[in-house]
Amino acid sequence: MTRKFDGKELVIASHNKGKLREIAALLKPFGVSVTSAADHDLEEPEETEDTFAGNARIKAHFAAKSTGLPALSDDSGIMVDALDGAPGVYTADWAETENGRDFPMAMEKTWTLLEEKNAPLPRTARFCSTLCLAWPDGHDELFEGKVEGSLTWPMRGDQGFGYDPIFVPNGYDITFGEMDPAEKHEISHRADAFAKLVAGSFA
Ligand SMILES: O=c1nc[nH]c2c1ncn2[C@H]1C[C@H](O)[C@@H](COP(=O)(O)OP(=O)(O)OP(=O)(O)O)O1
Ligand SMILES: [Mg+2]
């Protein structure tokens, strides 16, 4: 049996401002008051697992235990078929530099690898998201979502975050970076997982 969310406050166990903005927008219709990991002065736990689900559980359980409140995390990434699913769980790591994250650099690295491989067009990829809703007593629920598309070069658009400027979802000719946020929320991997969370835990 799926446990229902019946609290008033939900902690979003993420330090990514782009994600926080998207999750707050997705939760808006449900009258839940949301706070972030930063609002509770939480550190960023190390993401030591090699699956989205494993890392989503680490983040949500850490926040739930630390705050005594239910917490929702998202672990996500982009999987490129011609790169055998890379960068996948390591999407954020590929952008890591001494001075913080550099996503243009990570996108260029990804495109260069595809060029070096002479990967055929379209260069298919998908964004994946696993949401974990965890309670302070250790119970949790997991929900998975994805969106299929292909990569394009050069980068286009300044909406969204992360890899959005090179991802064109199937059925569109614009990137997530060029898309209105409300439209991204209709079709994104996070929205897909979120619909399952709502059906399971909020309905
Ligand atoms: O809709 C998206 N549009 C573009 N890029 C995206 C998206 N969703 C995930 N991504 C990329 C960037 C992100 O940095 C990485 C996930 O890494 P991931 O560890 O789950 O998130 P994070 O470290 O940025 O924030 P946090 O762990 O605090 O929730 O995949
Ligand atoms: Mg992370």
From TrEMBL:
Active-site residue list: 75
Keywords for this protein: Hydrolase, Magnesium, Metal-binding, Nucleotide metabolism, Nucleotide-binding
Gene3D superfamilies documented for this protein: 3.90.950.10
Keyword Transmembrane attached: no
Cofactor annotation comment: Binds 1 Mg(2+) ion per subunit.
UniProt enzyme class: hydrolase
Superkingdom of source: Bacteria
Residues given in the record as substrate binding sites: 14-19, 76, 161-164, 184, 189-190
A Pfam family the protein falls into: Ham1p_like
Family classification: Belongs to the HAM1 NTPase family.
PANTHER family per the UniProt record, alphabetical: INOSINE TRIPHOSPHATE PYROPHOSPHATASE, INOSINE TRIPHOSPHATE PYROPHOSPHATASE/HAM1 PROTEIN
Annotated protein name in UniProt: dITP/XTP pyrophosphatase
Gene: rdgB
